[in-house]
Design a protein that fits this description.
Strand 2 and strand 3 form a beta hairpin. By secondary structure, this protein is mostly helical. About 70% of the residues lie in helices and about 5% in strands. The protein is built from eleven helices and four strands; from the N terminus they run αααβαββαβαααααα.
Length: about 300
């Protein structure tokens, strides 16, 4: 049996993610009823590519290393996959009326967060926030007139059996991708269990309608969030137990945001959970540094 290195699995997963969201974007603007201007994904892609390559070039010069996108056209394409996914996610999930600026702000924030907000983990700098989710969340917070694309946005142009076949197809494709390549099924299960749990607690403790609290799970947007956003390999734990806790924590934060009457809880909950995880990583890194210094001090003595 031939084993596959984690790096190779990550690239394969990114390629599948990129292909899936590209196909959905094309179908959305041609047949499904996406309400953003068709030029929107083109603009976010162009700005995302340009900004990512610029920041990576600058960062490589500062760190005196070759830029990560050097090495041929294939290397360039693989390097830009996260930005490609983020740009199309911002263009698909946000609705800024006829203005292109909210989408451009979102992808600029997403790319900048991936380059700037980093923590060194296992000797390598890793970004701590899900880029597209961070861009979308900050855009929603700063521009009250911008909203998330309405639920009917994904199925406005179809009817009949396609109304449930499309979400089913997206669900199956995402589940297969995460099961085979990302290894994030424990996180997904933790997130889903936590979402049901917070709905049950809200029903018992605060007299919320239990079925209504579960209704977001029936939408295609929730399926996309579950299979393609919360499972970001770069900003979620690898260990299975930690994945479950990450999913449970995101659901718990979402429930608290709902109780506080905060809109767009899914995106904000993921930002908060990623931030909490970053704090734990910093504490753990500080603890390891102190332990290493203590050992070196004892050895020197």
């Amino acid at each position: 049996m031939i084993s596959t290195a984690p790096g190779e699995l990550r690239v394969k997963a990114l390629r599948r993610f990129a292909l899936s969201i590209t196909i959905l974007t094309l179908l959305g603007h041609l047949f499904l009823g996406f309400e953003q201007a068709p030029v929107t994904p083109v603009l976010t892609l162009l700005l995302g590519y340009a900004l990512d390559l610029t920041l990576e070039t600058f960062q490589a010069r500062v760190e005196r290393r070759p830029a990560a996108f050097l090495g041929g056209f294939g290397q360039l394409v693989d390097y830009l996959l996260p930005t490609h996914i983020g740009a199309l996610a911002c263009a698909m999930l946000l609705y800024g009326n006829s203005s292109p600026w909210p989408y451009l702000f979102a992808i600029a924030t997403a790319v900048a967060s991936r380059h700037i907000l980093r923590i060194r983990v296992d000797g390598r700098p890793r970004h701590v926030l899900n880029p597209s989710n961070a861009g979308i969340a900050l855009t929603l917070l700063l521009f009250p007139w911008v909203s998330i694309a309405p639920p009917y946005h994904f199925t406005a142009g179809i009817s009949g059996a396609l109304d449930w076949l499309l979400p089913l197809g997206v669900l199956m494709a995402g589940t297969l991708l995460n099961g085979k390549l990302t290894g994030k099924m424990p996180l997904i299960l933790g997130w889903l269990a936590g979402f049901v749990g917070q709905a049950l607690l809200r029903a018992v403790l605060f007299d919320h309608d239990f079925v209504a609290a579960l209704l977001p799970m029936t939408g295609l947007a929730f399926i996309l969030f579950t299979n393609y956003m919360i499972t970001d390999p770069g900003t979620t734990p690898r260990a299975r137990g930690n994945q479950v806790w990450f999913g449970l924590c995101t659901a718990a934060v979402y429930g608290l945001l709902v109780l506080a009457h905060v809109s767009y809880g899914l995106f904000l909950a993921l930002v908060i959970t990623c931030t909490l995880r970053a704090g734990l990583l910093l504490v753990d890194r500080h603890r390891l540094i102190r332990a290493r210094r203590t050992r070196l001090g004892k050895a020197a003595a």
